[in-house]
Amino acid sequence: MKKKKISQKDLLIEFYMRNPNRDIPHFEIVPRVMREYKKKTGKVFADPDRGIRKLYQDGFLIQISKGVYHYDPNYIKNRNLEDFDEKTKKAIFERDKYRCIICERGPKEGMEIHADHVKPKDRGGKAILGNGQTLCSQHNFLKKNFGQTTLGKRYFIKLHKSAIKTQDKNLINFCKEVLDLFDKYGIDTNIVD
User: Fold this and answer.
1) Which domains does the chain have, with CATH numbers?
2) pLDDT digit string (tens) for 77-111?
3) Alpha-carbon torsion 70, 122, 157, 105, what sign?
């Protein structure tokens, strides 16, 4: 039996159009579209979260809160979101020596790398060298799910715990000062050690 041809984007749009004017959390839509895509195509839906974010970035959805989106048929706005062109991607990779700026892994270690916007394009970030950074797939995924400051704070908490285990006093003090800055400026105060 031949499976139907349908794109992942089409399936997401179809779901939201069948459910207009209501706030839909990821946990409601993701399992449904994954099952439906498997049933219709026989394939696994690669990354529904990314597809949903892309619909938001394209102006099709309204973000209500983290992981909760709303489709209003009367509110579709077209945004001109900039992607990095190949020349700019290459310049970002060369500047960062083809290594993730967080873990320093890259193609030599078998890691796929991405040119990532420091300020997200859906928040007005431009596709210019100064707004680009190299991230491995893992850290690009984490940044998209947590946001840059959240990822940074989690990283320093992990580094701080590691420094305590190895009794590296210099690193302990450094991490403590960085984590204190998060608290001083009220950034990600919900994340605690």
Assistant:
1) 8-70 (1.10.10), 86-146 (no CATH), 148-184 (no CATH)
2) 655 567 899 999 999 999 999 999 888 899 999 99
3) positive
